[in-house]
């Protein structure tokens, strides 16, 4: 198999691969595809997408997938109107695809040929931006240049959006995605976005941010969903309507910029620039680095809420409006707050072998998110907490840490994260003991490698398959962790030897799920937790030598079936109601918590990381006695 690491390395600091020898048993996970940068008409991209989508992560051998056809929505897309630039070494056809950045540019300019179109993108500085970010640029011109943007262009917008968001089709891998999608409108392109896109919740509700240079907005139009926007010389209507959609209630000036923003949810903002000197390249730079990279979109609603009558409906990620969430982007290997990302490879964990289809495999790839003070060894020894973050089925470890909110929390609270890749090791074997031991070994490795990490504040968290893996790790070695946060997990009951440890050790647990989670997690007709979750509660209570709940009462205690010693209700991200019940031990310390969010489907959601961190951060483990220490003020 051909091996090629990123020729577009974001920076030497981002990828620090260990050069230890690999044997045939290593998983050898690759985030990236191997592709050259390309610039094509949309017709060419449509034709070339299937071969790329069927290629392996390295682009060398076919996968087991038998069908990734180009999307039929683009079969009759208006020819000669749209161009697609793809940076080299895109994030691959695994769920790492979600990390590709997508920039859409709508302009009323027309181009004689591809060279002229490419030169236009280059003049805006977008080729350099997407090379750094990794992803695609889609340049769109009017269907009828003489008449300008109109109804036909709105139909084309829908077709393009459908293909880019449909993960069952080839364009999703070739130049699509969904999380980091940003739209730029210039001149009449801005007018088109104002009047046709912003007023449609299925359109604007998928865009993480917009840059609108010039243009106008009809007073009858309303912006259908919150969206961060950078307006250049806007009319009063556009500024007012975007402000209303974002719920702005505060104002500030930053140099020449006027910023209307939402005090409670500052990602919802309207940036306005008034200038007679429109330097497009500089404006694009300012909008991208000052606004775009601070927001992302996460699909977590039912499919087809606003698309039931559309021709192509019900595909994966047909869930607009997406949740608009804060983002701490990794640029050149680190966030603006100084959290560094390192990809590591090595055979440190080859003793923990997973038998799979007559082939033994082991964890050989993991990702470290380290505060700058750990990287440069200026933090005091034993002062920085560590989170072992375990990804879900089909997720990339970095994408999981980002989309589940743990990266946001690390930026704001200065802790380290380690996220191993273990996909096949979990899904392809019935022997889970190696996973238990391997996950714990990763945490031990981090403590040995970085003396700045605090062994008394090691936490484990994961979502879905990773939630179950969280239980594997926590039950394998509860004394290693100060608290655990399994999210949307299936049960793991443990072996007799593992369970015996809880006779002398306690471990705080918070379980998190949603009302439209996977089957068994929530019983919708009964309006309470499902049987799977109810078993979790008593399992955790038993671990901590607390009385189990003999009977669950949905009539008197909706959602939970029990009262709890403390109940907290709040709204997450201004959109979803969350309920959390805490159960205390005999010392009054909350050792078991159950958290449910209304309305969410089974999907990563950044607020989950916030819920998890705000629970686990209160606990540490005495390294001499093994006792749990609770600090309500942490």
Summarize the structure.
This protein is 27% helix and 24% strand. The chain has 634 residues and is α/β, with parallel strands linked by helices. α12 (406-413) packs across α18 (606-616) and α14 packs across α15.
Report the strand count.
28
CATH structural class of the largest domain = Alpha Beta
> In the residues, how many domains can be counted?
2
What is the structural class?
alpha/beta
**Number of helical runs?**
18
Straight-line distance between termini: 49 Å
Architecture (CATH level 2) name of the largest domain: 3-Layer(aba) Sandwich
Q: Which regions contain 5 or more consecutive residues with pLDDT less than 50?
A: 1-24, 56-64
Backbone CA Rg: 25 Å
CATH homology superfamily of the largest domain:
Alpha/Beta hydrolase fold, catalytic domain
Largest sheet: 10 strands, mixed
Strand order of the largest sheet: 1-2-4-3-5-6-7-10-9-8
CATH fold description of the largest domain: Rossmann fold
Overall mean pLDDT score? 90
């Amino acid at each position: 198999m051909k091996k090629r690491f990123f020729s577009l390395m974001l920076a030497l600091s981002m990828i620090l691969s260990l050069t230890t020898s690999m044997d045939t048993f290593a998983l050898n996970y690759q985030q990236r595809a191997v592709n050259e940068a390309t610039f094509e008409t949309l017709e060419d991209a449509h034709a070339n997408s299937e071969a790329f989508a069927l290629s392996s992560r390295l682009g060398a051998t076919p996968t087991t997938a038998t069908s990734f056809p180009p999307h039929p929505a683009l079969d009759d897309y208006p020819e000669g109107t749209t161009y697609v630039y793809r940076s080299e070494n895109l994030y691959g056809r695994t769920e790492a695809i979600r990390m590709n950045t997508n920039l859409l540019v709508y302009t009323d300019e027309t181009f004689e040929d591809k060279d002229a179109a490419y030169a236009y993108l280059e003049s805006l500085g977008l080729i350099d931006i997407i090379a750094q970010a990794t992803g695609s640029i889609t340049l769109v011109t009017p269907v009828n240049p003489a008449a300008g943007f109109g109804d036909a262009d709105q139909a084309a917008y829908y077709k393009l959006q459908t293909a880019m968001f449909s993960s069952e089709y080839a364009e999703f891998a070739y130049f699509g995605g969904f999380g980091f999608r940003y739209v730029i409108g210039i001149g009449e392109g801005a007018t088109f976005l104002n009047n046709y896109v912003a007023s449609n919740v299925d359109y604007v509700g998928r865009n993480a941010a917009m840059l609108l240079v010039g243009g106008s907005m009809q007073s009858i139009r309303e912006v259908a969903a919150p969206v961060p926007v950078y307006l250049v010389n806007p009319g009063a209507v556009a500024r007012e309507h975007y402000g209303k959609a974002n719920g702005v209630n505060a104002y500030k000036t930053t140099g020449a910029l006027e910023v209307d923003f939402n005090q409670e949810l500052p990602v919802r903002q309207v940036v306005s620039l008034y200038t007679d000197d429109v330097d497009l390249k500089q404006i694009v730079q300012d909008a991208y680095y000052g606004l775009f990279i601070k927001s992302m979109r996460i699909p977590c609603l039912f499919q087809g809420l606003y698309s039931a009558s559309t021709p192509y409906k019900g595909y994966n990620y047909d869930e607009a409006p997406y949740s608009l969430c804060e983002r701490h982007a990794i640029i050149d290997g680190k966030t603006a707050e100084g959290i560094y990302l390192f990809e590591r490879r090595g055979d440190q964990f080859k003793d923990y072998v997973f038998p799979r289809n007559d082939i033994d495999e082991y964890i050989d790839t993991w990702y470290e998110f380290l505060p700058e003070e750990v990287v440069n060894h200026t933090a005091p020894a034993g002062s920085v907490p560590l989170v072992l973050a375990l990804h879900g089925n089909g997720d990339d470890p970095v994408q999981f840490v980002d989309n589940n909110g743990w990266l946001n929390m690390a930026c704001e609270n200065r802790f380290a994260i380690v996220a191993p890749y273990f996909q096949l090791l979990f899904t392809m074997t019935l022997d889970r003991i190696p996973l238990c031991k391997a996950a714990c070994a990763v945490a031990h490795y981090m403590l040995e490698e970085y003396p700045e990490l605090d062994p008394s504040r090691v936490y484990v968290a994961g979502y879905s398959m990773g939630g179950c893996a969280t239980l594997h790790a926590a039950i394998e070695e509860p004394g290693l962790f100060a608290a655990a946060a399994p999210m949307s997990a299936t049960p793991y009951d443990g072996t007799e030897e593992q369970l015996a440890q809880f006779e002398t050790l306690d471990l705080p647990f918070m379980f998190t799920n949603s009302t439209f989670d996977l089957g068994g997690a929530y019983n919708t007709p009964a309006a309470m937790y499902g049987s799977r979750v109810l078993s979790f509660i008593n399992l955790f209570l038993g671990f901590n030598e607390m009385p189990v709940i003999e009977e669950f009462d949905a009539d008197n205690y909706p959602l939970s079936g029990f009262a709890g010693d403390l109940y907290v209700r709040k709204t997450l991200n201004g959109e979803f109601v969350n309920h959390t019940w805490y159960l205390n031990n005999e010392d009054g310390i909350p050792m078991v918590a159950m958290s449910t969010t209304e309305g969410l489907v089974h999907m990563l959601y950044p607020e989950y990381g916030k819920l998890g961190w705000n629970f686990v951060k209160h606990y540490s483990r005495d390294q001499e006695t093994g006792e749990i220490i609770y600090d309500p003020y942490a």
